[in-house]
Design goal:
By secondary structure, the chain is mostly beta strands. 4% of the residues lie in helices and 30% in strands. The chain is built from one helix and 14 strands.
Length: 233
């Protein structure tokens, strides 16, 4: 889902900081219950479930320790965050949880050195959000015959937000109708998102280049504490 713009049809510059956690603090991934089993992790964290802003950091596991590769200010859903398993479509909330990153995509060409599978956005590229379609929560090119255009995103219309993006595996592997579709990590629009996580353009571009499929990158989305704390996932 793209960031909200002036007239949305549907519900979707930070300084990079390199190195270990400051002040000898235990790196955030080492305090988490699960990091997905790989050696790369993105963490998007908000102060609380009503927050629409927070911080996104990305990490590498090196020699048995997690090292921060970068960070950037992040934006979340206009109505905050909610536990992923309880989320409902159209609520403008960002689902919390630990998710795979199936592939990257963009209106712009893949950054040089990209190793993630990368799909180019074309004029017939859509993301289906129609609960009645067999293509629900899937890239559809061209638009599936049973997916209504009014219930899909025409990806090429959002050249800013989808200049570069990664698909977040929320409700993706075995989609549950009505839970939500089209959750991405993408470039900032004008404000809060309709459920995605967004960061400045340069940060997304760096992450797309940084992610390596063989290292099984995941994204954890959550809050600082409480039942939706990222450390619980």
């Amino acid at each position: 889902m793209r960031s909200r713009v002036a007239a949305p049809a549907l519900a979707c510059a930070g300084l990079l900081v390199l190195g270990a956690a400051p002040g000898g603090e235990v790196p955030l991934p080492e305090r988490m219950r699960d990091t997905g089993g790989g050696t790369q992790l993105i963490v998007a964290r908000a102060a609380g479930t009503s927050s629409t802003t927070g911080t996104l950091s990305w990490w590498d596991l090196r020699g048995g320790r997690w090292v921060r590769a970068g960070s950037a200010p992040a934006r979340f859903g206009a109505n905050g965050l909610v536990e992923g398993a309880a989320r409902r479509q159209g609520t403008n909330t960002t689902p919390t949880g630990l998710y795979e990153l199936p592939f990257a995509f963009g209106v712009e060409s893949a950054p040089r050195g990209t190793r993630m599978p990368y799909r180019a956005v074309r004029q017939d590229s859509w993301w289906c959000q129609d609960n009645g379609s067999r293509a629900y929560n899937r890239w559809s090119e061209p638009l599936a015959s049973d997916c209504r255009a009014a219930e899909a995103e025409h990806l090429a219309d959002y050249r800013t937000q989808y200049a570069y993006a990664l698909v977040v595996g929320f409700n993706y592997r075995a989609p549950v109708r009505g839970r939500g579709a089209g959750i991405f990590l993408h470039v900032n629009g004008r404000g809060a998102t309709a459920g995605c996580v967004s960061v400045p353009r340069d940060a997304v571009r760096r992450i797309v280049r940084w992610a390596v499929p063989s290292r099984k990158p995941h994204i954890a989305v959550g809050t600082v504490d409480g039942v939706t704390a990222v450390t619980r996932y």
